[in-house]
Amino acid sequence: MSQEVQQPDVSSYMSGARPEGTENYIMQQTMIRVKDPKASLDFYCHVLGFKLLMYKELPQWKFNVYFVAPVDASTIPSDADSRWAMCMSTPGCLELTWNYGTETSEGMVYNTGNADNTGTMDGQKVKGGFGHIGITVPNVYRACERFKEMGVEFHKSPNSGGMKGLAFIKDPDGYLVEVLPQGVMVTEAVDCLGVPAEGGEGYKDNSK
Amino acid sequence: MSQEVQQPDVSSYMSGARPEGTENYIMQQTMIRVKDPKASLDFYCHVLGFKLLMYKELPQWKFNVYFVAPVDASTIPSDADSRWAMCMSTPGCLELTWNYGTETSEGMVYNTGNADNTGTMDGQKVKGGFGHIGITVPNVYRACERFKEMGVEFHKSPNSGGMKGLAFIKDPDGYLVEVLPQGVMVTEAVDCLGVPAEGGEGYKDNSK
Prior knowledge:
The structure is a homodimer. The first copy, chain A, is an alpha/beta fold.
């Protein structure tokens, strides 16, 4: 197909005042379901350095929710009401939902959104809408060396694939976590998995 | 089953220093695929008051990405490098990924994660992992009145269901957006859809 794509004009979305009433809206959360809350909290808090801001145990509905974000623990209030308010004002929290009983299931429980066959009746792949969450870090290569030392599973190391200098790791449920630099994109000669910057063609991106 | 759930002890995740090297990590993005970028940008920018911080057109790979977040447009730098850096330091961005061609598809394209049958070969529901994104607002009832006036589809109005004072609306792809208060939870007598606080039992929550 030689047809050119008509690129939409999006300049109007970058300027102007926010609509009246929306000025203080906060993009506060992304909710994902997790099989085992302990495994997920270990990953997000010990590996990614997030803290548990707030949680709710809801045995009457057989599920709990845990809100995590990369904050300084000393800023988390000790009383429940203040903690709730702080959490609701923190942009970019992850809400981990644990439905009781999933933790004893065999294998993966939830479809991760990225063309996997988990959670389907026929074992066919699903065209999922959710792709990944992403963290930004001061140095992607140093961050990934630490992740490797901690035994984290890589979906894409920094030098694999066509996009150099960014990585994808997997959380305990298989959700993808992108690792991006806070400043300019940089490329180092060799990454934590030994992949040279000139190589890495084996990786095929399925997350777009 | 009368079995009690063993609630995990999570207190250790709330305190202590972040692991060395993770102190500056930012939870920067959540990526979802969208069928039609214009429809999604209209929704996130005009309805939710988000702004387009940064975007990339990648015709060589046949997709574009658009980063939106509820920021003041005057803070978005005009040159591309500064815009990238600003975007990568903004927590809670939404990355909208548009794969060329989906915009002309019939009906829904992507599985939203919430027990729908979109994106499967057999039309069966999928046990999705992704649940929703969520915004917090100064007043849920006022926000929802405005959403209703703008023709937004409600999944749950503030007084529907067991949890009063919070709502779920749908974006153009059917993804759920939770609407929560920034302060304490409040309940008003009647919501924008005319549901009284004492009623609303018809709503069955499938998002947990």
